[in-house]
Design goal:
alpha/beta; Glutaredoxin
Length: about 170
Amino acid sequence: MIRFSHALWLFAACIFLAQTAPSADVGAIRPFDRDSFTQIRAAYAHKPLVVHIWGLTCGPCLVELPKWGQMRKAHPDMNLVLIQADEGSADAVEAAVEHAGLQGVESWSTRSEIDEFERASIDASWVGDMPRTLLISADGEVTTLKGVVDPSVIARWLAVDVQKAGKGVE
């Protein structure tokens, strides 16, 4: 009886904390659709932005994801957006992001495997290969990197684009 009351009390405390927690979407996985990339570009207009496209069923993506967590630690001011582009539950996406040390990074996920219209909204020439990384400069120029990315490439790009923009990464 005592264990049951402790468990009941713990359950009630969890419910209370969940209801009183701030409702900020920081770190929440957002649903990606045809208009999402336009929203992402608008939110980071005139700022250097790294967009990393990955998938739960993509082996190289899952191996690389923790490297993005390390890059994020090395460059905490880097504007980074993750897009998970294949089938998978929100819980699985959230777990992978957290395991990689990327909690708090703006993350989006398709509801099912990304379709041709969603792909075209990102890059008209993209046929679905992953991982894929877009380096979007402050002036809007896009550099596309296919496959697993060497972190030094990102570091060099950030250094050059931040200098080119004449300001720090926001």
